[in-house]
Design brief:
The structure is a homodimer of 153-residue chains. With 153 residues, the first copy, chain A, is mainly α. The first copy, chain A, has helices spanning 14-44, 55-62, 66-78, 94-116, 121-131, 137-148, and strands at 82-84, 90-92. In chain A, helix 4 packs across helix 5 and helix 4 (94-116) crosses helix 6 (137-148). Chain A binds a DNA duplex (30 and 30 nucleotides) through residues 25, 29, 32, 54-56, 64-68, 70-72, 75, 86-87, 89.
DNA sequence: CCGCATATGTAGCCATGGCTACAATTCGGT
DNA sequence: ACCGAATTGTAGCCATGGCTACATATGCGG
C-alpha cells in the first residue's frame, strides 16, 4: 500500500516528506519574529544604550502599515523577545538580543555563501531575506566550512 | 530624518529593505501552491496518463488533514493550476505542469548546490524544502553556473 | 503654554491555512 | 445487490497577519 506504485522521480517516503514540509510550514511562524528582532537590532545599533524603536520606523522598513506592526509587537512581547510601553517604542529583551545575534550572524553567512557561489550582490541581498529563515544549524555550519575553504571567490 | 543616525551595521536604505522583506512576504502566498503542484507532479509521475491524486494521499505526504488539503485544492483550481471533480481527485493543468516542472527543476538544483557546498544529504533534503521557494531566477542561474564549474564535490 | 502635526493605539474587516466533527459518496467483498 | 470501511466533502471554529478608519497621546514651535 505504502509504496505500491513507486511513482517516478524522488518521492521520499511519506513520513519523511511530511516531516520536511511540516517543518518548513512550522518555521513560517518564526519567520516574522526573526525579521522583527533582526530589524530592531539593526536599527537600535549595538551600543549598550539601545534606544527603543517606534512602530512607524519599523513599519517603514518592513513595508507594512503601523497598525500591523503594533499587532506584531504584541506577539514579540508575548513571546518574551521584546518589551514595550505605550508610546515609548520597543526594546529587545536579553532573549530578543540573543535571537537577533543568531539571526544576524546567519544572515551574514547566507549572504556570504550566495556571493561565494557567484550570486550577484543585489540578488544575494534580496533572496537572503527569504532563504535565511530556512537554514538549519547543520546547514549553516556547512556554509561556514565552505566559506573558510573558499577565499573570497 | 531619513538617515539621521546611521545605526550600526548594514541597515540597507529603507525602501530597498522594505522591498526585499515585502517580496519575501509576498512569496509566501506562492509557497503553498508550489508545494502542492510539486507534490502532485511527483506523485502522478511523468507519464502522459497522469492519474488524478486524491486528497488523502496529498494529506499524508503534506502532514496536514484532508480537510485542509481540500480547501487548498480549491485555491489550486481557482488559480488555474489544477482541475478537480468531486470524488475524483485532482489533476494538474498545463499551467500546473509547467509550474511543477520549474519548481522541481529548481528543487533539484537547490539540493545539488547544498550538497556541493558540503551540506549533508539529510539536511540538504530538509532545508531545500524551505529554501527553494526563495531562490530567484538569477540566483538559480548562479547556482547552475557554480555547479557546472564544480564537479560533483 | 497651547495647538497642531506626527506618532501611536484601537476597532473591525478580510483571506488564509490550520483543525475537528459530521455528512455523503465510492467501492471492494461477500 | 448490498453493507461497511475508507475516502471525500462540508461546516464551523481559531489564530495570524494584512488592511483602513478612527481615536488618542506626544511633543515641538510659536
Amino acid at each position: 500500500m505504502t509504496a505500491a506504485r513507486r511513482p517516478t522521480p524522488t518521492v521520499p517516503d511519506t513520513v519523511t516528506q511530511a516531516a520536511h514540509l511540516g517543518r518548513a510550514r512550522t518555521a513560517q511562524t518564526r519567520v516574522l519574529l526573526e525579521d522583527y528582532v533582526e530589524l530592531i537590532a539593526d536599527l537600535a545599533g549595538d551600543a549598550a544604550d539601545a534606544p527603543p524603536i517606534g512602530p512607524s520606523t519599523l513599519a517603514r522598513h518592513l513595508g507594512v502599515s503601523h497598525a500591523t506592526v503594533i499587532k506584531c509587537i504584541g506577539r514579540l512581547s508575548r513571546e518574551g523577545l521584546a518589551t514595550t510601553l505605550p508610546y515609548r517604542g520597543v526594546t529587545l529583551t536579553q532573549a530578543g538580543l540573543a535571537l537577533a545575534d543568531r539571526v544576524r550572524r546567519r544572515h551574514r553567512i547566507v549572504v556570504a555563501l550566495l556571493r561565494a557561489v557567484g550570486v550577484p550582490e543585489a540578488e544575494a541581498a534580496a533572496d537572503a531575506e527569504g532563504i535565511e529563515h530556512h537554514v538549519s544549524d547543520k546547514t549553516l555550519a556547512a556554509f561556514e566550512r565552505f566559506l573558510r575553504h573558499t577565499p573570497v571567490g
